[in-house]
Amino acid sequence: MKIGCDDHQDRQGTRPWTIRDIADDTRRSVIRAAKREGMTISQWVNRVLDEQANQTLNATRSAKGCPSVPLHILDELLNLHRRMERVERQSAADDGLD
């Protein structure tokens, strides 16, 4: 399945990473914001980064005439498509059509 206007294919799995040199006032703001929303710092940062990245990517896609779809939706569609292809291949092999 080819999804046009994307830049998320061939992404590696999630790996731990660290952001260094964050100003103390920024750290305090993040801690307060996460607490205010009842989230861990990791959850809050993940959500904010994901939202910002999607806004930026969607603006770029719109400028290219591509539909604005959140990356996690495209990822799920791609995963479903791959699963369907595997099932179809297995079914064809079971039927002796492969």
Structure description:
The chain has about 100 residues and is mainly α. It has 2 domains: about 25-65; about 70-98. Helix content is about 60%, strand content about 0%. The protein has 3 helices and no strands. The protein has helices at about 25-35, 40-65, 70-95. α1 packs across α2. The longest helix is centred in the C-terminal third of the chain and has 24 residues, at about 70-95. The radius of gyration is 19 Å and the shape is elongated. It starts with about 25 loop residues before the first helix and ends with a helix.
**Stretches with pLDDT under 50, minimum 5 residues:** none
**Major sheet size, sense and barrel closure:** none
Average residue pLDDT: 78
Spell out the helices and strands N to C.
HHH
- Strand percent estimate: under 5%
Number of strands: 0
Q: Helix- and strand-based class?
A: mainly alpha
Number of helices: 3
Overall number of structural domains? 2
Radius of gyration: 19 Å
Distance between the termini: 20 Å
How much helix, percentage-wise, in residues?
Answer: 55-70%
Shape: elongated
What layout of secondary structure does this protein have?
Layout (H helix, E strand, L loop, with lengths): L23 H13 L4 H23 L7 H24 L4
